[in-house]
Structure formats: C-alpha cells, structure tokens
Write a structure and sequence with these properties.
The chain has 331 residues and is α/β, with parallel strands linked by helices. It folds into two domains: 162 residues, Rossmann fold, CATH 3.40.50; 164 residues, L-2-Hydroxyisocaproate Dehydrogenase, Chain A, domain 2, CATH 3.90.110.10. It is 44% helix and 18% strand. A six-stranded parallel beta sheet has the order 3-2-1-4-5-6, with helices on both faces. β5, α6 and β6 form a beta-alpha-beta unit. α2 packs across α10. The longest helix has 25 residues. 46% of the residues are buried. It holds the Pfam family Ldh_1_C. It comes from Drosophila grimshawi. Keywords: NAD, Oxidoreductase, Tricarboxylic acid cycle. GO terms for molecular function: L-malate dehydrogenase (NAD+) activity. Its EC number is 1.1.1.37.
C-alpha cells in the first residue's frame, strides 16, 4: 500500500504543472467575476492578480474562500495597475463598457479605446514579455490599437498579443451540435476572420462531424453565429451583454495559453492576431501555441466557394475596422 502511494506521488510529480501569475484587468465586471472564478480553479495559476477601478476587494475576499491552491490578490484603481501586472505571465483584459441594446461594437470604441490604451501603456512598462489576451470590444479595432501602443514603445512582439475570439468558436460548436442533435463537446469547427458581424466566419465545410446542410438553412446558421451577441443583449433587455459565455470562452483560451507555457504540444486555438494570411493586417485563424505565444499561424484551412467569397467581403470590413484604430490614436 505504501509503495503504491509513493508510486502515485512520483507519477504526480512527473506530471506537475508549472504555475504562473495571471492578472485580470477588469475583474469586478460582468465578465471579470465569472472569469476569475474559473481561473481560480486552475492548478496552473499560482497567483491571480485581480484589478479594477472599484468593488474588487469584495470579489477577492469571496474567491479567497475557495479551496484551491491559487492565491488571489486585490488591486484597486489606476495607481495599483502596475503592481497588479508585475511578474504576470499572462494578462487578461475584460475591462471596458459592455454593449447595450441598439449599440454596435464600433459604438464602444470611444470609451473602450481609452481603456485599452492605458492598459497597453502599463503592460509595455511593467510586463512586456507577458502573453496578452484582450477581450475588450471592439476586438477588431482594439488589438491594432494595442499593437501600435506597444510598437511606439519598442516592445511589440506579435506572437504575444491575442484578441480572444474563442466565444465565436464556442457558439459555433453549440449551434452546430443543436442542428445535428449531438454533444457540442464532440464538435470541432474553426472560426476565422474577426469578432463582429460578417467578419465572424465559421468554416462549416471543415466541421467535424460533417455538416452537410446547404442553402438557406446553412446561411441561417452562419447568420446566427455572427449575430449571437445581439441574441444575448436583446434577451437581457438592457441588463447586459454576453458575460457568462464570454467568461467560459476566455477561460478556455487562457487554459490553452497555460498548457502551452507548460510545454504541452499541439495546443491549437483560434485567435485574432497580427497576420499575413490575408490582406488584413490582423486576422483570426487557428494558431499553434508555444511557451512564447504563437509558435505557428496555421493559416486558412481549405475553403469552399461560398467561404472564399465570404472571406473577400470580411477582409474589406476588417481593413476598415483596423483603420479606425489608427484614426482613434490620431484624435
């Protein structure tokens, strides 16, 4: 019995994970709180530094009662942002104004652009080697803004900056599973492009198990995936946007980064990153992750004719969204 326990301990030690510090900026918000709860459960996180402008101490006190090995720390206000980010291996940013009924993602830029700029400046000063996962909308424009801020400070590494588009993949898997009457956990489908409207392109031709429906029914499914955010905003009737599903999706993406940091091979996730795959400077595709972020951009999977036409259209929209970032920084 004793020798068996020793063997179990030895096997556990060989499989032990490298635990790192993760910072969440905007941790008291509708996405930040459930995201922080999910991250608190990860054995690959040693310290969870939670920052917000207010109301964060109660969140941290609450989370600190959960019996996992992850230590949680509270940081309040602009002056404590630097302390929150010190030594962080991953910085996750859900901070910003949520979308409300009648708003599109572009409407958020005035407020959320300033948030992204301040966070990017602090990252550049405190932890430029961190992997950065931005959730703040509009992602199509926010990521180019952050990239430019980092470039101006000579710390930009395109392999370390990610726009989190995992929610589009989560929704695609869920909606395809509903159509096929199967478990969504068995569905694999890449979602490329961006993170708003027609820039979201689920590649149904690459879906596993096969999705063979064509015509109006297929178009309806694609449209639902693209407009799923509106579905939630309208259902909440002004009380918020997609928070729980976004937190779930973001936690899945952070888990991918953590597994890659730990040296796990073949960790693949779709993300909006600087890219040479299309004419758009930033584009979401499947990414092979490594300890330093992007190990390889896997590019565009094989597309059918309908998807090729959709890419041509969405690239034009992405270019406009990216240009909005440059205009914002010149204001």
């Amino acid at each position: 019995m004793i020798s068996m326990k020793i063997g179990q301990i030895a096997r556990y030690s060989r499989c032990a994970k490298k635990a790192v510090k993760v910072a969440v900026v905007g941790a008291a918000g509708g996405i930040g709180q459930p995201l922080s709860l999910l991250l608190k459960m990860s054995p690959m996180i040693s310290t969870l530094a939670l920052h917000d402008l207010q109301d964060i101490k109660g969140v941290v006190a609450d989370l600190s009662h959960i019996c996992t090995g992850t230590r949680v720390q509270a940081f309040v206000g602009a002056k404590e942002l630097q302390c929150a980010l010190e030594d962080a291996a991953i910085v996750v940013v859900p901070a910003g104004l949520p979308r409300k009924p009648g708003m599109n993602r572009a409407d958020l830029l005035t407020v959320n652009g300033d948030v992204a700029v301040e966070v990017a400046k602090t990252i550049a000063f405190v932890c430029p080697k961190a992997l950065m996962a931005f959730i703040t909308n509009p992602i199509n424009t926010i990521i180019p803004i952050v990239a430019q801020i980092l470039k101006e400070r000579n710390v930009f590494d395109p392999n370390r900056l990610f726009g989190v588009t995992t929610l589009d993949v989560v929704r695609a898997r869920t909606f395809v599973a509903e159509a096929l009457c199967i478990d969504p956990r068995t569905v694999q489908i890449p979602v490329i492009g961006g993170h708003a409207g027609i820039t979201i392109l689920p590649l149904l031709s690459q879906c596993l198990p096969k999705y063979t429906v064509t015509g109006a029914e297929r178009d309806k499914l694609v449209k639902r995936i693209q407009d799923a955010g509106n579905e939630v905003v309208e259902a909440k009737a002004g009380a918020g946007s997609a928070t729980l599903s976004m937190a779930f999706a973001a936690a899945k993406f952070v888990d991918c980064l953590l597994r890659a940091i730990n040296g796990e091979e073949n960790v693949i996730a779709c993300s909006y990153v600087q890219s040479k795959v299309t004419e758009a400077e930033f584009f979401a595709t499947p990414i092979l992750l490594g300890p330093g972020g992007i190990y390889k951009n896997l590019g565009l999977p094989q597309l059918d004719e309908q998807e090729k036409k959709a890419v041509e259209t969405l690239v034009k929209q992405l270019q406009q969204d990216i240009a909005e970032g440059a205009k914002f920084l010149c204001k």
